[in-house]
Amino acid sequence: MNAPTVLSLRGATKRFGGLVAVSDLDFDVTEHEVMGLIGPNGSGKSTTLNLISGALPVTSGTITLRGTPITTLPAQEIARRGVARTFQLVRLLPSMTVLDNVRAGAVFGHRRRWGHEAEAHAMRMLETVGLQRRAQAHVGELTYIDTKRVELARVLASDPKVLLLDEWLAGLNPTELEEGIALIRRLRDEGRTIILVEHVMDAIRSLCDRCVVMSSGARIAEGTPAEVLSDPEVIRAYLGDDEDA
Ligand SMILES: Nc1ncnc2c1ncn2[C@@H]1O[C@H](COP(=O)(O)OP(=O)(O)OP(=O)(O)O)[C@@H](O)[C@H]1O
């Protein structure tokens, strides 16, 4: 039996004035799948995540979560329904402890928890990302990968059903990258549904069941990582992009 569809985009379009950042985009994400959303710089990947999470309204098109339209819902309501994302630039409160940052995710998320329950849950999430020993550290004292771990723990604390990772692996050194990939693999093995926006192709190859490739806002290919990364149109799109060439 096919896995149920969790998230669907149909004709999703976002214009910024004259610029079409996302153009008539269709794709489905099925349960427990890791879907890579890839493409050259400026192809519309982050904007697509912003449309899904409700951070930006669509210009036209529909987005459904388990068959229910979420297209016009405010971001907070979409988060409450179990869609959570990390940001390209980590957004944490540097003067607060690691634990307090993660606890904030437990309090404000999809499944709200308070007091001791929130704290115990936040500690479990810190264990998941391997940071339990730094619970009382201030975020400002952490290494870069550890701030990323905190952000992921904070997002996980809201018990998301759909996790949107926006270049979560960017900027890591090779050892950290291996750890990061192993961590995302563990989240996948726990049965989460993940959309991964990523430029690190090793991560795409080893983590994604399927990829959607965007170029200039439109979907230009879809398939397994091996299929799309050998597609001549995809190769052309990447080579045409100065920063990735
Ligand atoms: N708030 C905005 N206002 C105007 N233009 C925007 C805005 N956000 C994004 N854009 C433009 O939309 C296009 C798509 O940008 P987006 O950030 O979604 O691409 P991306 O694929 O995520 O790129 P990258 O890989 O570099 O992060 C770009 O041309 C960008 O300049």
From TrEMBL:
Superkingdom per UniProt: Bacteria
Domain ABC transporter, residue spans: 7-241
Entry-linked InterPro entries: AAA+_ATPase, ABC_AA/LPS_Transport, ABC_transporter-like_ATP-bd, BCA_ABC_TP_C, P-loop_NTPase
Tagged with keyword Nucleotide-binding: yes
Gene3D superfamilies: P-loop containing nucleotide triphosphate hydrolases (3.40.50.300)
Pfam families: ABC_tran, BCA_ABC_TP_C
PANTHER family: AMINO ACID ABC TRANSPORTER ATP-BINDING PROTEIN (PTHR45772:SF7), CONSERVED COMPONENT OF ABC TRANSPORTER FOR NATURAL AMINO ACIDS-RELATED (PTHR45772)
Protein name, UniProt field: Inner-membrane translocator:ABC transporter related
Organism in which the protein naturally occurs: Mameliella alba
